[in-house]
Amino acid sequence: ATRHKSNIELFGQGVGNAIAGLFGAIPGAGATMRTVINIRSGASTRISGMTHSLVLLAIVLVFSPLAGQIPHAVLAGILVKVGYDIIDWAYLKRAHKGPRWDLVLMALVLVLTVFVDLITAVAAGVVLAALAYVKQIADIQVAALNAGAEIADDPEERRILDAANGKIALFDFAGGPLSFGAAADLGHHVREKAKDGMSSIILDFTRVPALDLSAAMAVDTIASDAKGAGRKVYITGLNEKVAATLAALDADKHIGADYRFRTRLEALRHAAGLAAAPGEMPTSEIKGPAAAGAWFRLKA
User: Fold this and answer.
1) CA proximity to 187, closest of 175, 199, 176, 201
2) What is the pLDDT of residue 297?
3) How far apart are CA 179 and CA 278, in angstroms?
4) Which residue among 57, 136, 140, 231 is least enclosed by CB atoms within 10 Å?
5) What burial class does residue 167 get, using C-beta atoms within 10 Å of its C-beta: 0-12 exposed, 13-18 middle, 19+ buried?
């Protein structure tokens, strides 16, 4: 079997509808029913679609008088059979075992298709499915936003956090882009974890490939709140894209160049006053946006 090319098919439909409009014809669109009939009949190449079009053209131009003699009951029976074949029975048998939201969304699209129209149903389904996905990812990211030694992978990280006795909070953002779905809860989550007597907050973006406007402003809010409370904010693991977004929105204005590090271990050392050695580190030794400010001064 050959795989169809959706872009080419869509382009062909557009050209065909444009030409049909010149003759006052009704525009058409691709339908699953004809594809199902083709496959059920043993079709395996794109030639089957072309053959179907030619046969349909012949019926319209030549054999329309004969087609007009077919009883409507027969045509209705054919449509019922095709509709039955389109249904994914294997999925329906297991749908109730999956996420409840997926089942609700499927039922909603079905109702809109029957009582409104197909275009509205598809549009509503796509939008709601996208929002549900964003919500799911946001919940995962917020749930994974932990603070404390339990997320420290390196023994030295654990030792520094344990020795800090609650004065340093390490926040590790879950892997994946940070979007508006999680932005609303980020600031609240960090404020909730920040305790009295805490002097430093470390935000680890190592596993964040990108973030949007809302997430960037959430970072700005976190840094602003920390500064107002007399706490230092460190950022680690920024890639070029995330750093550029924060800089473009001026969301990093409360985080000085001396508080940006390539790894969170370096940030932990600095926050705990345990920098490896005093002096300056040239930017050539630090790759990426962690080198913002040209030089890092590690204080003992």
Assistant:
1) 201
2) 27
3) 38
4) 57
5) middle
CA 73, CA 242: separation in Å to the nearest integer?
Answer: 62
For 88-153, the DSSP string reads -HHHHHHHTTS-HHHHHHHHHHHHHHHHT-HHHHHHHHHHHHHHHHHHHHHHHHHHT-EESGGG--
- Rounded to an integer, what distance in angstroms lies between the CA atom of residue 47 and that of residue 145? 54
Token reading at 84: 């039955």
Convert the pLDDT of each residue in 64-101 to its tens digit. 999 899 999 999 998 888 888 778 788 788 877 877 88
Quote the CA–CA distance of 12 and 90 in Å, as a whole number: 33
Taking 60 as the threshold, does the pLDDT of residue 47 lie above it? yes
HSE-CB at 281 with a 13 A cutoff on CA atoms is 20
The full set of domains in the chain, from first to last, is: 88-143 (no CATH), 144-298 (3.30.750.24)
Tokens 């809109």, residue located: 112
Predicted local distance difference test score (pLDDT) of residue 293? 27
Query: In this model, does residue 115 exceed pLDDT 90?
Result: yes
Closest CA to 273 of 195, 148, 193, 168: 168
The model's pTM: 0.57
- Identify the H or E element spanning 279: strand 279-282
Neighbours of 243 (CB within 10 A): 19
- Beta-carbon contacts of residue 258 (< 8 Å; ≥ 6 apart): 293, 296, 297
Copy the structure tokens of residue 214: 């809302």
Count CB neighbours of 197 within 10 A.
8
